[in-house]
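Subject: Protein record for review, amino acid sequence with backbone structure tokens
How to read it: Take the token row as a discrete description of the fold.
Enclosed: The protein record, placed directly beneath this head.
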Amino acid sequence: METDTEPYVHLASLRELHEVVSRLNTARSMADTLQAIADGAVRTLGFELAAVNLVRPDGDLLVAAVAGSPGAEALMAGRTGSRDAWERRLSMGEQWGELRFIPHTEGWVLDHDDVPQWHATGPAPRYPDEWHPMDRLFAPMYSFDGELIAVLSVDKPRNGRRPGQWGREAIRFYATQAAVAIGNARLRANMQRALARLEREQDALRASEESFRQAFEYAPSGMAVAEMGGDSHGRLIRVNDALCRMLARPASQLRRHFFADLVHPDDIGVLLRSSAEGGRAELRLIHRDGGTLWVSLRNSVVADTADGPRFLLIHVEDIEERKRHEQALAHRASHDALTGLPNNAELRLRLGNRICARPRETPVRRSTDVFDGFGTPAPPPYDHHEHLLDPDTPGADGKGLAVLFCDLDGFKSINDRFGHDSGDAVLREVARRLRECVRDDDTVARLGGDEFVVLADGLGPADASDLAVRLRSAVIPPIRIDGGSVRVGASFGIGWASCGLSIEEILRSADQRMYIEKRARSHGRRRAG
């Protein structure tokens, strides 16, 4: 059976990548943004060294930020490489999507050009995909209109290997978001200069207002001005074309609304928490067709005059594509590549979210909300948690979260006779049949190999037994492979999730009951024979 050769992507590492990308847009200056990009690359992309080469107005590239090595920073930072030398680099080597990898077998011709560079020391590679000290990897960064604005270079992978498929995708994703951050840093600098002029130059108020108007109207990101304070707080006064295009709504229609009217109802709380000066948030806006669009929201307070009313300047950046990337990466990390089912880690996460480590002797009860003196929920006993119990436990209501452990019978012989491709086809078909037999809110997960687990809430013992019978009946019909057909059986063990038990204890209980059932069925067949 085929297995995924990519390194296992933990959900924690995806959250870290998301956090680093989110922080790229919080730097106060262009220099801080560039250094945050270099530092973030070292922190999340698996390399020990990263440098950001920024395109200057004359076209040459300046080493604007270095992370991971004081020696490399001392040697490279502040130095410039010609545009011709960089274009030569970006036209050589192997093209990994938007990335450019130059192996040491080709890169030696670049050793003496004018591009600042620093190479790690180390032994020659011992296997094909091992990183050579003279290998080079570049991630070009482009503006929204396709102009090259910077190049991210990385070196010394911590695992000693050239990045695989997921690693390359992570670098490409990071470089794309870093380019957005550089563009936003430029936009922020322009907006800050315009606002500074408004505050400093009272005698040139008209010119300053025109500068602001142009920055507002022609900004590539959505912009809006809303009233601040009083009953009209949040009412839209002015919107730019980019925001109108983003939501497919005309300006005349948007100006009839409060900004909160455009926010998805589930995200209103996020909006309220970010409505103060300097507030930031990621939330969904409602498109004209009723769909939603993920955006990054940033608020600034602008005064009309020195002593006049204050308004809220709202900057709206479309992050729908980034969210799709994140969801795709999260899905890959939490789902089995062969069957598309939740994997072992996701199963444990879902099960762990339903149980608590309640001592066995603790009375069973629904917790109530207890608040401390600051209006926030106090810790224990258990805020918003209703304990899970085995249905047979005294005091239970006869229903619980059933954990059905499934092991396929006869699967090994299919792999041995027909090969792993056929075995994979059988596993995919079994996964499909199991999914079709459960409710939408039930979980069918692949534990590994030919083992599956089903989580079904609100069942009693008889319901769980009936479900196991239905699942077994769905698995045993013939499965067509390569013009023929094969059969597999299925053994099920039924356990129950219960607070006070660990995830291992719950799964082991269901596994043991499955093993007992399998032995009993095997013994019954021998006696019948």
About this structure: Confidence is low (pLDDT under 50) at residues 1-12, 360-383. The first strand starts at residue 47 and ends at 55. DSSP finds 16 helices and 18 strands in the chain.
